[in-house]
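Build the 3D complex.
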Amino acid sequence: MAKGRLSPERERALINKVQKNRDTAAFQELYDHYFPKLFAYVGYRIGRKQDIEDLVADTFLRTIEGIDHFNWRGKGSFAAWLFTIARNLISNYYKQRRSEDDALPLEDIPQLEASTLLPLDAVLQKQRLAQMRRLINSLSPRQQEIVTLKFFGELQNREIAVLLELDERTVASHLCRGLRELHHKYMAESVRTAERDSR
Amino acid sequence: MIERDELNRQDQELLQEVERLIANEDGERREADSLYGFCAHLASTRPLADEAFRLRLETKLISVLESEKKERKMSAEQTKNGPLAWFIPARPSLRAALTALLLIVLLAGGLIAVYPPAGAFAKAVFDAVRGQTSQVIVTVVENGTISREEAITTDITGPLTLAEAQAEVDFTIRLPAYLPGGYSLTEFNIYPGSRDMVTILFDTQVDGPGQAREFFELHESKREGIYAGGEPLGDVLINGRTAVWAQDVSTTTDDAGRSSPLTANKLYWEDGGIYFTLRSYDLSQQEMLKIAASIK
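Done.
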């Protein structure tokens, strides 16, 4: 089933309503659209469930605080603005913490979407998320950003380009290289795991 | 010379595949040993928020927007009508209602001050509305003086259990899954002969010396507007349905006969042909929205 997309015209009309009238129905439509993407993106960048929730909440609160200052600059500009707020908060989060917890307890890791491809139980799902997150964190910072914004923020390459102030082709190029590198690391890890298990 | 970021055919195919995967969350299942299969594997490994968190945050954000809307409205009216204009409603009907309410409050306050049984009457009415008694003593005033007292039966009956109330009404009574800390369902009240409305009381059950007992009411009715009312302050959303947030200002009287203003918060909305009203003197809008959203 294809996911619902918000047309640029609709998005612009909703933002106008929130700016002019603090229209709660309009805000709710924007929230419903962006909440899962923002949560999944922050989930990969942060890891710990409680911190993800705090940061997502803070992002939306700042969005409301600053929405009067947002200027529509065409398709993708709102997504770029929203994810910029999240990126800045993530950056502050890591400045305040000296190191990241690579080995989070499983209870601190969020669950996966119910539409997950494999019928794994909750523990295995969380292990899978932890593995993917660890692999992505081994990429260059720029590739990490692009892969997570693409796969979990579900942004278009054009939107990512606006957000990171890059050329769209550069985004596409980083994405392809990042995915090939990730796949390579994933396969190497799978081989090592299989060898270890056979011993 | 090939540009650094120029994409070859394989990259272009990969990008197309990625767009397809992201657009279709339940994409074709593949083994993760191929690059495309790995991309599908990655796309399906998405962290998911707890629904409770999503709802809690949504409620909080809507509440922030509502507060801002109210502030803007007051600020605009103040600017338009002068420094004290915010105190007076703009609509003539509301101004008339406010004037009438003030007169009633003054008359009731005066009566209670000069005649102690009036205080007891106010308390009895208060208890009757809460379903604790079905009979109250009414003080009859004729030609400006108190002439006599009469016992009248209120038209509310209770308390009943859920089974008893459900047997009386011709719709399915719905209850909230969420209750604020300390509250529990206490009783059901119905109107004799009326099969289309029920009042449900939720109480903190704290009744010790010096402890205020808090309660809120949930009215469910097939008739529109029975429990609506108060001054509407704005619209809010409950599970995607528009609800009205309103306040009722009345007076309360203590045992010594002293009266003071009392504000009831109200939330009313329609769902599936049933008109719901939540009323509380103690709960915040955020808590009331959470209760309302949990009524399925």
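Confidence is low (pLDDT under 50) at residues 126-156 of chain B.
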